[in-house]
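Record 1 of the preview.
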Amino acid sequence: MPHCNVADSVRIFAMVSIKRGATPTPSSPTDSDSAQTGGKTFPEYTIDELARVAGTTVRNIRSYQDRGLIDPPERRGRVGIYTQAHLGRLRLIHHLLARGYTLANIMELLKAIVEGHDLRSILGLETAISSPWNSEAPRHYSYLALARLFGRAISRTALAKAISLGLLEPDGFGYLARSPRALAAGAEMAKAGFPLEDVLDIIEQARGHFQAVSDRIVGMVVRELDRFGEGKLPPPSEVPRIVDVLWRIRPLALVALETEMMRALEISANKYLGDRVAAILEHLHEEGGSAGD
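->
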């Protein structure tokens, strides 16, 4: 039987687009496993053959059929005959299941495709929403590696705090850092003499503020989506634009947050350190004058 990858499956389904409950058009068989139309041969399958080619089970195929995810086969006597359209739909279902979709999600996707949506646009929307914003690769650290990184032994209190904040996760005989850069930044502050517990307290306090700002930013996108009805997909013509907006907002949001953070640090530095620096400079000037007398 010919091989059919996921991309082929998507194209097959997009071309055929058999609506739920429709019966495939009968074709005249030329041999036991194929039919000819206009000089082209299209493979046909019994349910056992379809299960084998699709890499699934007969039970799964019947379950998908009962749920309306795939159409019933053409009946030829007592035998059900399945086509490339069924194979394409099965491969598409398996691809979406592997991406974490439930059968209920897949049913909604298939319904949206029948209503005129492009599958790639829908998956692009899902990717833009759910893909990680942080592209860092996690890194494993032993306790000794953490001690070397921070230049000192880490107290149990600080370790427990870092785990509760999600900065570290127990991983076998060591720990997994989802953001090695954040861990390295904390280590540099600890090496500069700041108590690690204080640094962790600042992160914990900042979390609530950053979450509130992030909720407001994402809320703008939600309002944009809700213009088309709560819980409903945008019209097919609008999906590419919204996907573009979602990807654009990522770097723009980070720039805005970084700019505001730098502004706030500058204000705080001038507010709390400006007078002290001026006093130090004045004291040094006085000492220099006394030495000259």
